Structure prediction request, 200 residues.
Amino acid sequence: MPIRAALVDLDGTIWENPVRFSAVREALGLPLDGRPILAGIAELPPPERERALAVLASHERYGVERGRLRPGAEELLLSLRAQGVKTALVTNNSRESAEAVLARHPLPFDLVLTRDDGPVKPDPEAFLRPLGQWGIGPGDALVLGDSHLDLQAAHGAGISRVILVRPPEWTRAYFPEGASFREVASLPEAFVLLRALLNP
Prediction:
């Protein structure tokens, strides 16, 4: 089946973020339980929740200011566009952070979806929503991410073509059993794999 849409993660995938979110969890007293950090924050009492959201926002701003675009990101996205593939940035980050990154690096995304816009990964709707807007089925989509949340959302959405870029070791414990994915060490390596998938 052809690839008509690529759903791309931000932090850890195309954006080198110096913030270790496992350390942010520890600072907030949240367990490393495989859930999105937002799920843990949502369960805190209101005063603690507000403080935790402020801490998270502060770390996200730092990640934008001190982070950098991963080598090969622009070339990969431009290649997808040249092949007529729709691209969506799908991130659990805030819209403010995503737009700040794109202001520095105006990457050719057709759609940008953040946690401020609807369901977040690992909810399959995070991927099904953009596909629905384009009238594209999961069988014609590809996910490019770096963690269990990307793989869980893709698996739940019925997307079998998934490329993970250097997933952190601790996330492997939360990979869905039987989920299909390919693993690469860098975006240039992902680019080579994508070209093979686009031109079988």
